[in-house]
Amino acid sequence: MRLLHLSDLHAGKTLGSVSRNEDLAYALEQVLNFCKENKVDLLLIAGDIFDKANPDNESKEIVFDFFLRLNELKIPAVAISGNHDSYEFMKSLRKLLRVINVFVFPKPDLENAVFSFGELKIACLPYPSERVITKAEESAKLDYAIAVEKAIKYLYKQVEEAKFKVLLTHLFLAGAKYTKTEREATISKFYAVEPSSIPEGFDYVALGHVHRYQRIEKAPTYAYYTGSLYQLDFSESGQEKFFNFVELREGSPPLIEAVRLTLKYPLHVVEVDQNNYAKDLEEAKTLNGYLRVNLLVRDKNRLNFVVDRIKEVLGDRLIRIELITEELRAQEKEEIQELQTLNLIELYREYFKETYNREPEEQVIKTVLSLMESVRNESGKQDYP
């Protein structure tokens, strides 16, 4: 049984005013070419198919065209919703996509969560938001991670008699190395599910949500994040991107091949020293893809000239310029060191304790996390005007 596992397409992703749909289409073309050249039985998509709850028409066209071409190759697909996907929108696609052998699991539903494919059974757990995974009367007393663990084990019971067993899910496992492109609330300690929650009887665990390719070594079986299909923003500059080709074998561990994707427009972060801008720009303009320039300011009186020169040389490939000084760099280094020991919820706990002279109730923390989850964090440093 040969499976292809990918995740986090984020169709409709933008970088500033630049659409990343070309990057996605370029990656999906490579997936299709791989499928043509190899005997793939089934494709698994582990969530975040779209970047926004209401995707634009171009994004939908790219995704649907991919599914149509996959169907022409006679390769069915199983897709689950991620935290960026709208449960209701994905539900609206379910019956239509089934016509072209794309089987969508839009929302956690433990009684209708198993996809059978010959001797393979796939337990499907779309992104388990707190509002869905815990019942209203339990939410104040049942820990999120425990609720998810119970759900996974319940699903395993439904597939344990199968010859091959796979878990397809979109969630955050504790210890995963994430980037800065995941929604911050969803990778907090509250949402961290222990790898030990996964039954060792699964032959393979196809994970989505974290955008960096990795195996979760502490899991009792073969559990992989394949990451995003292209670099989503400049925090992923320099990262290679992959999908997994998995061969399930009876009585033996699976064969797992990480297939590297080439990038249409890789992202680069380059530093330009105001005092040495001509040389730095000569090197920067040879790079393929999009660029963020960190401009080291030496003389504010001559700043506009250098900024204009950067824009002229790099043109449309320049996404933004960030101004930095030696003082700001030292300050940011200190802030990064502090943030490594404090997360947002811990900061909120400190604020609450200082303001009200008591610890916040866990239900308050859960409410804050829920609000954080629903708000896109599009903030960042200001671009140079």
Detailed description of the structure:
There is one protein chain. This protein has 385 residues and is of the alpha/beta class. The chain has helices at 21-37, 57-72, 87-98, 130-133, 144-159, 277-284, 303-314, 326-339, 344-356, 362-374, and strands at 2-6, 14-15, 18-19, 42-45, 77-80, 102-105, 114-117, 120-125, 164-170, 204-208, 214-215, 223-225, 241-249, 252-261, 267-273, 290-296, 318-324. The model is unreliable at 136-141 and 376-385 (pLDDT under 50).
Helix and strand topology:
Blueprint: E1 2-6, E2 14-15, E3 18-19, H1 21-37, E4 42-45, H2 57-72, E5 77-80, H3 87-98, E6 102-105, E7 114-117, E8 120-125, H4 130-133, H5 144-159, E9 164-170, E10 204-208, E11 214-215, E12 223-225, E13 241-249, E14 252-261, E15 267-273, H6 277-284, E16 290-296, H7 303-314, E17 318-324, H8 326-339, H9 344-356, H10 362-374
Helix pairs in contact: 1-2
